[in-house]
Each structure stands twice: as C-alpha cells, then as structure tokens.
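Structure request: NUDIX domain-containing protein, Streptomyces tibetensis.
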Amino acid sequence: MTIKDTPQEWEIRATATPFTGNKTSVRTDDVVMPDGTVVGRDYQVHPGSVAVLALDEADRVLVLRQYRHPVRHKLWEIPAGLLDVPGENPLHAAQRELYEEAHVKAEDWRVLTDVYTTPGGCDEAVRIFLARDLSEAEGERFAVAEEEADMELDRVPVEDLVRGVLAGELHNNCLAVGVLSLVAARTGDGLDALRPAQAPWPARPFEA
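Returned structure:
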C-alpha cells in the first residue's frame, strides 16, 4: 500500500470570518460530518510560507535566533517568511528571505520537503528548501525592524542541530523538520535526488 496524503473536502453549510488581521484571519466553517451532523470548526487562514535550510561547505546550517512572543522564547530557526503575494513563486520568496535575513545567496536550490505546520487549527503550508553553494550577497543589507532588529545569526554543524532537536532543546518546526529531512535524504537516495526547486506544490499553486 502506498502511504500518501490525498485531497478531500467535506461539505460546508456556512462560513464566517470573525477576525481579520494584517496577514492572517480566523474562519469558522460549519462542516458536515460522515454521520450527517454539522460541527463548527475554527481555524487560522494563512497565506503560506517558505523556509530555507542553507548548508555551507563546512556542513554547517545557517540559523537565526529570534524572539517569538506567542511562545515567550528566543528560538533558533532557519530563514523563513510568508508568501506575501497570492500565487507567488516559492523559490523567489525563499531567495528573498535568505537575502533579507542573512544577506546570503545560493547557487543550488532543491525542495527538501513540504509540510502543513498545524493542520488541526491552521491551513498554513510551508515549503522547505535546501540551499547550497552559498556566498555573501551583494549590495546593501536589508533594513531590519521590530523583533528582527534583535536577531542573531550563526552557522551550526548539522550534527549539533540534530542532537538539539532530539534532546528537546530546539523547537522551531521548520528547523527540526529541515535538519531531520536533510539527514534522511543523505541516508536515502542522496541530496541530488531531491525534487527540483520549481517542483509543483498543490498546497500553494504558482507560476514557474
């Protein structure tokens, strides 16, 4: 049997949007269950995101330390950001985030994995890229503000990140999924067997 997620949409009798924020909103749908009952489901509507596991020639991952107010923690993360424009090419968004957050560019891009971060309460889809052959970006550094003004940047060996994830010391979703997927890909068919950077993404369709 092939283990594969499949699209499906149950009937919605009514929908409302009780809250709309700058980037996301909250939606309430009345969904028909298999037994015919109708149940309300509240969830966050999200534009989608991209994240970048940037791997240098010394087998270190570029990571950022940033304050995240909802969880009251400074978390080590990989560069990531929102898909600001509907239908935006996720590769272009990932290249932008790597430049803005780390002032780095990469020559080799591949899709590492695609995930739904919290499918029980949010429709956010994230594409995590692997970026290699890194170099310093040209031009002016991107001006940072708010939480990003306090952000720290480092490069950490892959094995140290794996240890931290498994020890419960590193909690960021994209970092954990990214580094563990990297290790899995290496022990499987290898990094060159990963999907190309412009691979289709049904969760967030885009123009190549």
